[in-house]
User: Which sequence fits this backbone?
């Protein structure tokens, strides 16, 4: 593997000891970061990064990548409409090829936008063939990914149990750990996307939490959206010793502060999806409530069927929504504007880097630029005018940055994007297959689409 020297960039390390280097170099060797310093000399291929930010690759902590071919379809749907039209409708007609092309295109788009680690929350896999199609697509894309194996949520047919009564399939988890996801140090690894007590019976939740703990896997679950299937379920699971650092809660808008504190004390992680939560009716993101308890969220895109896949947009959404809540609270107390912003912009960058790494138990590998870590790196252009001048590097990245400005992206020291282009020669074919898949699926709802015409241009 070629040694690389990323030279003369504005290096935003996200490492507390290194901070921001206004002009700095990053040396990459054997897929890892060998050194970070204001100036380095090395016998290596030099990549000029003057006029660019050099960032740790972003981390998308929650996305249903299988929905990529349905982009914009759910833009005007509430959560209830989404459940009805997607899970009980469109999802039921997906074949493995649909999963493969959607996951491949979605992962490539994340790479294009500077995301080097994706948590693919895959809950439309009625057969092992669907599952394997998603896993193979992630591997093919070149992204670092945690494949969170989930389960479909169709309406039950006569004589079938409701999905809330179906335990997570141990056989599939064992198959994946012995087969395509056996290497826990590989780019693509396994997690579990379980129902949790909000969407399943206590018996099912107990089974699923225990299985994840036994297998040493992160168990992630949605929390919120209507009434809980098992009131008091969380307290019962905590009493059984099944809630701990391997548990990840997504959304969590309806949890009480008492519950949040109990979870934080047990090491539970949280992933929020601010744009979609505010769009579909989940409620306000719990960013500020976590901060008040000494914690913070990781962030995910959630649904490209509803919103964009740009993680910097998501970070701004989370920041702006919490500042708005805090500003409104201050007006309610004093009738005036707060003396200063309640949430620094720098925290928003943490949410899409270091917090995502911690949620995956990979803080020693990804999330920041430091010696010995994986060389997952994004190089973002300042452009001729858009981000000049840079007075506060981190604030500039958060408030003016865009995934569309990513020039280079490396995963484990390998370029997946160079000079503004993904390093694949078949993107036209990917677009065409994605459009064809979307058209076939959407025929279920008779939704008109122009994707095929646009893809052909």
Assistant:
């Amino acid at each position: 593997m070629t040694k690389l020297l990323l030279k003369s960039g504005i290096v935003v390390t996200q490492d507390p000891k290194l901070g921001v280097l206004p002009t700095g170099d990053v040396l990459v060797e054997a897929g890892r970061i060998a050194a970070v310093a204001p100036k380095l000399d090395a016998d290596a291929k030099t990549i000029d990064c003057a006029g660019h930010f050099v960032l740790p690759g972003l981390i998308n902590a929650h996305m249903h990548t299988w929905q990529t071919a349905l982009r914009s379809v759910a833009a005007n749907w509430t959560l209830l409409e989404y459940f009805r039209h997607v899970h009980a409708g469109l999802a039921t007609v997906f074949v493995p090829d649909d999963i493969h092309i959607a996951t491949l295109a979605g992962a490539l788009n994340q790479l294009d936008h500077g995301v080097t680690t994706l948590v693919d929350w895959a809950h439309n896999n009625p057969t092992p063939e669907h599952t394997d199609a998603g896993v193979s697509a992630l591997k093919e894309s070149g992204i670092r990914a945690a494949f969170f194996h989930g389960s479909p949520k169709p309406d039950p047919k006569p004589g079938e149990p409701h999905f809330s009564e179906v335990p997570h399939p141990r056989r599939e988890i064992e198959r994946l750990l012995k087969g395509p996801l056996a290497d826990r140090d590989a780019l693509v690894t396994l997690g579990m996307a379980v129902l949790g007590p909000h969407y399943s019976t206590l018996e099912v939740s107990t089974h699923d939490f225990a299985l994840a703990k036994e297998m040493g896997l992160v168990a992630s679950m949605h929390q919120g959206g209507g009434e809980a299937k098992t009131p008091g379920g969380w307290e019962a699971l905590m009493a059984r010793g099944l809630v701990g650092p391997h548990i990840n809660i997504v959304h969590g808008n309806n949890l009480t502060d008492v519950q949040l504190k109990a979870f934080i004390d047990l090491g539970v992680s949280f992933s929020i999806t601010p744009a979609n939560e505010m769009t579909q009716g989940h409620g306000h993101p719990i960013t500020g409530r976590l901060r008040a308890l000494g914690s913070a969220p990781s962030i995910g895109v959630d649904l490209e069927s509803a919103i964009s896949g740009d993680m910097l947009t998501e970070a701004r959404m989370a920041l702006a929504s919490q500042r708005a809540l805090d500003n409104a609270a201050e007006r309610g107390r004093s009738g005036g504007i707060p003396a200063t912003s309640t949430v620094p912009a720098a925290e928003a960058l943490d949410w899409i880097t270091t917090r995502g790494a911690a949620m995956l138990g990979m803080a020693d590998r990804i999330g920041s630029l430091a010696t010995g870590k994986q060389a997952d790196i994004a190089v973002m252009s300042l452009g001729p005018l858009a981000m000049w001048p840079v007075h506060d590097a981190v604030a500039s990245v958060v408030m003016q940055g865009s995934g569309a400005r990513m020039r280079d992206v490396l995963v484990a020291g390998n370029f997946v994007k160079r000079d503004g282009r993904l390093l694949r020669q078949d993107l036209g074919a990917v677009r065409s297959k994605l459009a064809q898949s979307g058209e076939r699926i959407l025929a279920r709802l008779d939704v008109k689409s122009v994707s095929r015409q646009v893809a052909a241009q």
User: Anything to note?
Assistant: Residues 311-334 form the longest helix (24 residues). The longest strand covers residues 20-29. Residues 58-357 form a domain with the TIM Barrel fold (CATH 3.20.20.140). The two ends are 38 Å apart (CA to CA).
